[in-house]
Amino acid sequence: MFKIDPAANRINLLEVKRFTELGFSERKHLQEWLEHYPQALAQGEGDELLIIQKEFDGFDDTRERLDLLAIDKEGNLVIIENKLDDSGRDVIWQALKYASYCANLKKQQVVEIFQRYLNQKAQQECGEAAQAEKLLLDFLQADDLQSAQINTLKSQRLILVAAKYRKEVTNTVLWLSQFGVNCQCFKVTPYQAGSELFLNVEQIIPTPEATDFMIGMMAKEAEEKSASHEQKNRHTLRLAFWEQALEAFNQSPCTLFNNISPTKDHWLSAGSGISGMPYQLIFGKNEIRVGLSLQNSQAEANRFVFSRLQAQQNSIETAFGDALVWLPLPDKKACRVQYEQTVDGYNKANWPDMIAWMVEKMTRLEKVLNSPLDQVKSELKVADLGKVADD
Asked: Which helix (DSSP H) or strand (DSSP E) does residue 128 occupy?
């Protein structure tokens, strides 16, 4: 670091010092400086800190003391640990212990801790103590304590302050960040120029430039984990549903699915007698379906079968007893004929009715399509659209 001399138009190198060389101590000096100017540890607008206690020892069954306890604008408790010239090996362990202790503090306890701090300051200054709850609500811009978000689950932050960090400390901080632990390392360096003393406070982990990136990555990871968890739940749910559905089909006149095993997919297929054109059951969150899916690798064959069946639409629907949904899907290779029902599919209480509906509708659909499909199968052979007539 350099000091600018405007008169001489020169810069002069500042001499790096150790705190102990200058006679400064951790508790009497560094801690006092940060207590009275916590914004030295703030990174940008909106990252303000409010000190609510120092030398806090209000933990059950332990006499340990954390250096400074603060709260940020989001209502997160911030544990600040100072180590002067050397971070030491155990600073991470200390900070994590304090964070775990603080994680159990309720809103009213936070207010009481802050009030004790204000009372102590007022006593030292021979003044009247401010009201902790009012100052806290003003800082958080909250209307009342009930609506304020204070010390919510997994919201605690760690701030480490030292002139030099050991590798085991920085490595551990970087590793913890992968698990969403909000831990910052600030390097504090004293400088001297003649009789003048200077202090540089610099965030080194994470770097200010990397902070947004890390926050974005953690949010992305949380989203992916949530999506993965939801997918696993859906797979488990589908497997359970198909087990019940197949059991019901095995006890019904419909033999299509007798040799089919339950899966984690949202669909089950059974042969119709024509290759690549199976009957399908669909189980979704909001609907269930029975249908015929024309998904042969040859689009011409799918369109051929679809057009022949649709030509008999009136007689097929009359025999089925209701209108079917005919989907030629011109932009895709496949075509579908289906019948659907809106349901609350993931509510297991609805499953017996849903399965009964599937059994009934698939039984009727197979019955009305059996003869038309036999006829179309013969026409496919004559049409010579490829080897699609055997299944």
From this structure: none
Identify which of 365, 12, 14 has the alpha carbon closest to the alpha carbon of residue 189: 14
Residue 319 buriedness (CB in 10 A; 0-12 / 13-18 / 19+): middle
Between the alpha carbon of residue 100 and those of residues 56, 59, 93, 171, 321, the distances in Å are: 14, 10, 11, 21, 65
Closest CA relative to residue 296, chosen from 265, 274, 273, 267: 274
Q: Could you tell me the domains of the chain?
A: 2-105+151-206 (3.40.1350.10), 233-383 (3.30.1460)
Helix, strand or coil, per DSSP, at residue 341: strand
92-151 confidence digits (pLDDT tens): 999 999 999 999 999 999 999 999 999 999 998 888 889 999 999 999 999 999 989 999
- 360-to-249, 282, 345, 347, 364 alpha-carbon distances in Å: 9, 14, 17, 20, 6
Cα 274 to Cα 295: distance, rounded to the nearest angstrom: 10
Query: Exposed, middle or buried by CB within 10 Å (0-12, 13-18, 19+), for 349?
Result: exposed
- How many other CB atoms are there within 10 angstroms of residue 229's CB atom? 10
Q: What mean pLDDT comes out for the span 288-314? A: 94
E-strand spans in the chain? 2-5, 10-13, 15-16, 49-56, 66-72, 77-82, 157-162, 182-193, 196-205, 267-270, 279-283, 287-294, 325-327, 335-342
Using CA atoms, how far residue 329 sits from 109, 325, 366, in Å, is: 63, 12, 22
